[in-house]
Specification:
With about 260 residues, the chain is α/β, with parallel strands linked by helices. The protein has a domain of about 160 residues: Rossmann fold. Helix content is about 25%, strand content about 25%. The strands form 2 sheets. The chain has a 9-stranded mixed beta sheet. It has a two-stranded antiparallel ribbon with strand order 5-8. The structure holds zinc ion (ZN).
Length: about 260
């Protein structure tokens, strides 16, 4: 008899502002980008999915919600500065304890990504008519499953190097754009016990989150980021498990030191 593994509990977070301000974005994502992403994830039986947005109390990321989140996805752009430092600190702690984090597109400049990377996270960009070709440079990686050698997004915002990130633990995608630039568009890091994945595509005025390969990457990355652990490091001053051999010299120093 096989047991059914517990479902991966995903919280899809978005600032949900462009959709209210720009009719072009609202037409692409009538319920918001977070609902479009959540709907994709909800098609998979191994996920339970909820959403959270900036304008909810505590940005929808209360302790109760974070307690029930195995993997958090993050999309922000206009309002990075409105995300409270207290919520960022809580999310950072959860990641270090083992919660997975998927940072999408302009989330590269979010407080939480910068805090976990410890770097500028800056890049160059152009919003025009570039095509993006994402080369899969690590085809055996779980995040690349089902993709082939590369895939293309017909129109996307360009992000170019240099990207101000620490050297990734693993690089999954490198993008090429029609204008000639390249970018490390899919990269992973481990921070504490938490798995972090940055995924570049997702500019709000293009239908990127309706693109099947982009959806596949997000699904794959949520599965990959799920660690199944939540480890609180308390760092106690430990008593030895067994009697330690007596070092007369050290004992002498200790006595002198405490006199
Ligand atoms: Zn953008």
């Amino acid at each position: 008899m096989s047991t059914i593994p517990p479902k991966i509990r995903v919280t899809v977070w978005s600032e949900f502002r462009h959709e209210k301000l720009n009719p072009k974005v609202a037409a692409l994502y009538p319920q918001g980008m977070h609902q479009a992403i959540a709907a994709v994830l909800a098609q998979h039986a191994d996920f339970t999915v909820r959403t959270a947005t900036l304008d909810e109390p505590e940005h929808g990321l209360t302790d109760a919600v974070l307690d029930e989140t195995d993997v958090l996805t993050w999309w922000g752009h206009l309002a990075h500065g409105e995300v409270s430092d207290a919520v960022v600190a809580k999310v950072r702690t959860r990641v270090l304890e083992g919660m997975g984090l998927i940072v999408l597109h302009s989330g590269h400049f979010s407080k939480i990504f910068k805090a976990l990377m410890g770097d500028t996270c800056s890049l160059s960009w152009r919003e025009s008519t570039d095509k993006e070709r994402l080369w899969v440079v690590n085809r055996a990686h779980p995040i690349a499953q089902g993709l082939g050698a590369y895939f293309e997004i017909p129109i996307e915002e360009m992000y170019g190097e240099p990207f101000g990130i620490p050297t990734p633990d693993e690089l999954i995608f490198i993008s090429w754009f029609t204008g000639g630039e390249v970018f490390r568009s899919g990269a992973t890091w481990r921070r504490g016990h938490g798995n972090i994945f940055y995924f570049r595509p997702g500019h709000e005025t293009y239908p990127t989150y309706h693109h099947p390969q982009v959806q596949q990457v997000i699904v794959n990355s949520v599965r990959w980021a799920h660690s199944g652990v939540r480890i609180k490091e308390t760092g106690p001053n430990l008593l030895p498990l067994e009697p330690l051999p007596v070092d007369p010299e050290a004992a002498g120093r200790s006595i002198i030191g405490h006199r």
